[in-house]
């Protein structure tokens, strides 16, 4: 990634565990934690569904890119939203400023975790088949954007967090 590792970014599909692992990783590594969705909610004073409904998805995507462009803290953990890695500009920023970890979870697990959550507008507005198609079409982009892929199936949040910390320490300073 060139120069010293600064930030750790968690990427992957909705429900793969980015927010949950990021929070735990920040405790374990004693680094500040930013969940991009929460930061955008805080900055706008609106929920994610409200932003989608009132301004549309493209506006939300622009807020995500603006967050990455304007963010200045160097050593920290950032949990992205599931759509962040889909933009080339975002991928470039993430790879230039940190280590990118893809949390790779199987779709049936993901669906079990997200299908009832009203806070994810894309899930709220789509069928299971549509979400599965989106999962498949995004998969290779996550994989290519990441320095490391972490398979999460059959692993607890604690195990995943420990493995993420191990990889981050191993690659520190590269
Ligand atoms: N490996 C795991 N084992 C058990 N529960 C998990 C695991 N990964 C995620 N979860 C749970 O699934 C839900 C969705 O995870 P979350 O971190 O919000 O995903 P994301 O931020 O990637 O959308 C949360 O309740 C989280 O605790
Ligand atoms: O995958 C996506 O397009 C989205 C994922 C969500 O974050 P999580 O991945 O944390 O659920 C949130 O940013 C928004 O609902 C859109
Ligand atoms: Mg999240």
TrEMBL record:
Q: Name one GO biological process term.
A: aromatic amino acid family biosynthetic process
Q: Which organism is it from?
A: Planococcus massiliensis
> What EC number(s) is this enzyme filed under?
2.7.1.71
Can you provide one Gene Ontology molecular function annotated for this UniProt record? Answer: ATP binding
One GO term describing the cellular component: cytosol
Q: Tell me what this protein is called.
A: Shikimate kinase
Gene responsible for this protein: aroK_1
Q: What does this protein do?
A: Catalyzes the specific phosphorylation of the 3-hydroxyl group of shikimic acid using ATP as a cosubstrate.
Q: Which family does it belong to?
A: Belongs to the shikimate kinase family.
Q: What is the lineage of its organism?
A: Bacteria, Bacillati, Bacillota, Bacilli, Bacillales
Its annotated pathway?
Answer: Metabolic intermediate biosynthesis; chorismate biosynthesis; chorismate from D-erythrose 4-phosphate and phosphoenolpyruvate: step 5/7
């Amino acid at each position: 990634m060139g120069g010293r590792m600064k930030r750790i970014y968690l990427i992957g599909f909705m429900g793969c565990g980015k927010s949950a692992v990021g929070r735990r990783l920040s405790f374990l590594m004693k680094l500040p934690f930013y969940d991009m969705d929460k930061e955008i909610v805080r900055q706008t004073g609106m929920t994610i569904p409200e932003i989608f409904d009132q301004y549309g998805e493209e506006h939300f995507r622009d807020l995500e890119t603006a967050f990455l462009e304007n963010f200045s803290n160097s050593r920290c953990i950032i949990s992205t939203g599931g759509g962040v890695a889909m933009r080339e500009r975002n991928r470039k920023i993430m790879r230039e400023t940190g280590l990118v970890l893809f949390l790779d979870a199987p779709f049936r697990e993901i669906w079990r975790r997200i299908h009832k959550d009203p806070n994810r507008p894309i899930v709220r507005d789509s069928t299971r088949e549509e979400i599965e198609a989106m999962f498949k079409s995004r998969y290779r982009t996550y994989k290519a954007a990441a320095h490391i892929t972490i398979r999460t199936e059959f692993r607890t949040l604690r195990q995943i967090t420990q493995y993420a910390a191990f990889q981050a320490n191993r690659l520190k300073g590269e």
